[in-house]
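User: We ran a pulldown and think these components assemble together. Before we commit to crystallization trials, I'd like a predicted model of the whole complex to look at. Sequences follow.
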Amino acid sequence: QITLKESGPTLVKPTQTLTLTCTFSGFSLSTRGVGVGWIRQPPGKALEWLALIYWDDDKRYRSSLKSRLTITKDTSKNQVVLTMTNMDPVDTATYYCARIGMVRGPYLDYWGQGTLVTVSS
Amino acid sequence: DIQMTQSPSSLSASVGDRVTITCRASQGIANYLAWFQQKPGTAPKSLIYGASTLQSGVPSKFSGSGSGTDFTLTINSLQPEDFATYYCQQYNAYPITFGQGTRLEIK
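Assistant: Here's a predicted model for the assembly, 228 residues in total across the polymer chains.
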């Protein structure tokens, strides 16, 4: 059974750095072709892809946020960490992590439950 | 960036109806198209990938078609649990992009 779960602060202040952890089970990030991505969804709005990391440490970022994002993996702990610097109230959203499935292309097949992050002073 | 445009933005239908949602990409994406269902307060659930392949465990009442720039999601015999918001997503090129969503409501 594949599961993912996001964890991190629910409230951050403007200009602070957000660190989110995705802890997963049921698959390994050392398996060829596998990856984990991060997606966010502001309240009442659509989904927005942020970043992903593959089994071979290949990393991709949303270009408009690239200067603020860092994604890393710890294969032994089954975790992927996303950091986002210089948080702003417009970054208030539910943040999801999702697995990239074993098909051609970065298809996000299994998702975590999401974690709501509010940016406010 | 590839823009994904869904239509309609909202749709009212009755239990038992068949509905179709369309998704258009601003440039060709071959068949690198996925559909997701999202209910309020929950994470998106994957339904279809490769434009037409059902994700494991998804009932056959859901079907997808299309290639290139135009895609459709069809849901047969609507049941109360099908009323949700549906998103298309392209994964042919970075950045991965989603449509704005189609809200399916009970008439």
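The mean pLDDT of chain A is 96. That may be worth checking against your pulldown data before setting up trials.

User: Thanks, that helps.
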